[in-house]
Each structure stands twice: as structure tokens, then as C-alpha cells.
Amino acid sequence: MTWKPELDELARREAFARQMGGVDKVKRQHDQGRLTVRERIDGLIDQGSFHEIGAVAGLGDYDAKGELTGVTPANCVFGRGKIEGRTVVVVGDDFTVRGGSADASIHTKPQMAEEMAHDLRLPIVRIIEGSGGGGSVKTIETKGAANLPGGVDGTRWFYYTTANLAQVPVVALGLGSVAGLGAARLAASHYSVMTKSSAMFVAGPPVVARLGQDLSKEALGGADIQTRAGAVDHAVNTEAEAFACARRFLSYLPSSVYELPPTLPCNDDPERADEKLLSAVPRDRRQVYKMRPIIESVVDHGTFFETGAKFGRPVITGLARLEGRAVAVLAGDSFHTGGAWTADACEKVIRFVDLAETFHLPIVYLMDCPGFMVGLEAEKAATIRYGVRVMAAVNQSTVPWCTIIVRNAFGVAGVVHQPANRFSMRYAWPSAYWGSLPLEGGIEAAYRADLDAAEDRDAKLREIEDRLNKLRSPFRSAEKFWVEEIIDPRKTRSLLCEFARLAEPLRTPGPATAMRLRP
Fold it and tell me: Could you tell me the pTM of the whole model?
């Protein structure tokens, strides 16, 4: 006698699970241009690597004799798979079963996915569509009672959803309408992507309409809104692009804080010198220039992976490689507020520095920061409060830093270009320009009496500017050893690759030691 009858029954139940919400619901998903959860998992991970857990969990239908006639599977599919040969946890919402609502969920499935990622120290990718396990008003009727948020047996999942941020890489993909708890799960990530046809919101249009705001899904929480607000990092046209972004992001990170980021083979010469860097920064300080080509020039060819491009736009953040070693890249963007740090730019830097600190990524900062943004709107946004939080984040970091001062370094924000309490590498280009305040505006305040007494005020202003600009030369600062080195811009890649080599043995696997106390 064998156990084949039981194995046949198991196979029959697994077949029910693969039917998901049924032929009509699957067709509706496809007709609306979206993949099913199982197709998404197949598109994300290495072929044939998925090991599913709890496939047969759901609601069984039985006839009068107690024989199973069908199964409506739980609307969560999860398990382990591999991305580029490394094991990850994947958990996905099945929108074909009751639109991903709690009425068809078994909350311990997504909870176990989070626990497994945490305790096995594995990256987790959340594929989110619907409420992500959250309830609706109909849940009161189907469950027979009103759910107390955070009630008995209702907090463990929430704990791991955020605790994993300090333990393993967390990637979230929003692939449809994402609301409530689903929105929280999407935002509670190190990197999030949504398709441009998707939408995310705390509550959808019907709820918001009761507040007198009659909005479509796109107008309420479309990709343009969420990426500009910083709630989602990136928007793409297709689900396949979202999967590619997730895979690439994870390629720069270790599997957990207990490991170091992987180093990949590199055939890009670390001594490569780009002649274009000599003219990358214009002599006219009022003229903007493109920072991204500079980044692309100094890192390994084709490795720069930008994050959060539409949020906090005075700064550019992303991941890259130097001689195959993963680094975090921060840079100024003069096209937006001249590179001055706004409140949202400060928020972006805080999150980015914390990411680098959590996963032991050395930080490269290509600096062009004329200070914090000034003016009434900047004051209303409490820019200086966010600026002080940036200072705390940078000073509490322990990963190696290398700063290249490309152009501006002014004011309090100018101070925050490396940790203040330890050695960091720093170089300045000949185009660098720094001080407590930019001359523009500062002369008016400091030399008002001289200007008011002059017969020709404009001529006197130019005279003072010329005199101070000569003193502002970076060579004067180098004479006093107020800056360590002024370099040929063409040597930047070579020096950064050396920095990455020197930084490699300094990184210690384990939970980040920074206190992360924010004012």
C-alpha cells in the first residue's frame, strides 16, 4: 500500500489553487492589461525556482457527502524563489479573488512571508494589488464583527512589515489599484515601483468623494502624484519593467544586514579618464549644467541606477559600482532650485543615507549645494528642521564617505557634505566655490555702508566682488589646508575607485550601529 491516493488529492487541491479566482476573473485581469499573481511571480524570479508555501489554503466547497468539489484559494501567494541565483521571499496579492480584500484572505500567509524574510535573513519582494489584506466595510458582515485595528492577534504582521526595513532589503511593486494596508505595505519599503496605469491611496475615490473631492483614481493617487510626493520611488510603463527594476535594485544590496553587498566582475578601466569632465561645469556660476552625465562618467559604465528621480529634485540619489563594488551615490542638481536643499530634498537625503548605512554601502557625494533653500515658502516648509535631521543622519552614519566638491558648498547645508566626527575622503574640482554665504546678496549685507557711500554703487559692487572672488579661489583655501586636495576632474574616477577599494574592508556586517536619533 502507498500514499498515492493522498498525493493525488493534494495535486487536485493544488490544481484548484492554480485556477485562482476562476477563468472569468483571470480573463478580466488580462483584459485590463494586468498579469495574474502567479504570472507576476514567474516574471520576477529565476525560471523554475519558486517554492510555494500554503498553496492549498483557502475556502473549500463540500457536497452533502463531505467530498471536496472546489476550493477558493486565499488571495495571497507566497514562497521562496531566486533572483540571479540568490534566494528571496516573494509575496503577492491575488486580485482575481475578491479583488485582494480581507474577506478572502488568511492573514497569517502574508504575515509568515514577512517572518520568513526576517528570520532567514532574506530579501522580500511584495507584489501588491488591492487592499493587500486589509478589510472593507463588507468585512463587518462576512466576519460577523468589526475589526479593531491592532486588536488581539492583529499586530504581529504590522510589526514585521516595518521591522524588516532594518533587517533585509524590502522591495514593493504596486501593480493595480492599491489602497489602505496595501498602500502602507507599498510605502514601507526601501524601493518601490508602480506601473503608470496603477494608483495608490490611503482610501479610494468613493471614500474621498464623501469629503467633497470627486476624483478619478489617477487624479487621486496616480503615478505622477505618488512619485513627485516621494511615496513611490519609480513609475514604469509595464509590469515587466517593474520586475527588471526590482531585480536590478536588489543586485546592489546584500541579502541582509549580516552580509556585505556583492562585488561583481568589472572590465571598465579604473584609470579611465574622461576629457569631457574638463568642461562639464561652466565658468558662469549662474549657468546650470547636467550632473547625471558626470555621474555616468565616473562610475562603472552603465551601472548608475537612480532612485526617487521625481522627488526632492535638487538632489540626485542612486546606486552604482566602482570597479565592481556597490556604492551609494548622492549628487546635487543645479537644474532645480540651483541645487539648494528644499525640505523634500532633505527628506530624500535622510532616507538615502539610512539605506546606505543599513546595508553597508560606501557613500560618494558629488557636491553642488549653495545652501538651504531660502524665502517664505522654504520657511513655511520648516526647511531648517529637515536640514538639521539631515545633519543628524550624516553624522550618525558609520559607512565610509568620499566627497567631490564639484561646484557650490555654502552655509549650513554646505557643512553637511561628510560626517563631522571622523575622517572622510574629500577632493575639490577647480570649479569649486565655497563660503559661509554666496557673494550674491551677501555683499549687500556686509558692505552696505561702503556701497551707500560710493558715487557709483554698481561700480563699487563690482570692485568688491572682484576682490572677494580672488580670495574665494580654492587655491587660497588649499594654502591654509582648509581643503585637502584640488584635483584634475579627469582623475575623479581613479580616485573614487581607490576609495571603493579602501572602503571595502572597513564595512562590518551586522545591524547598523548609528543611533538614528532625529531632532
Answer: 0.91
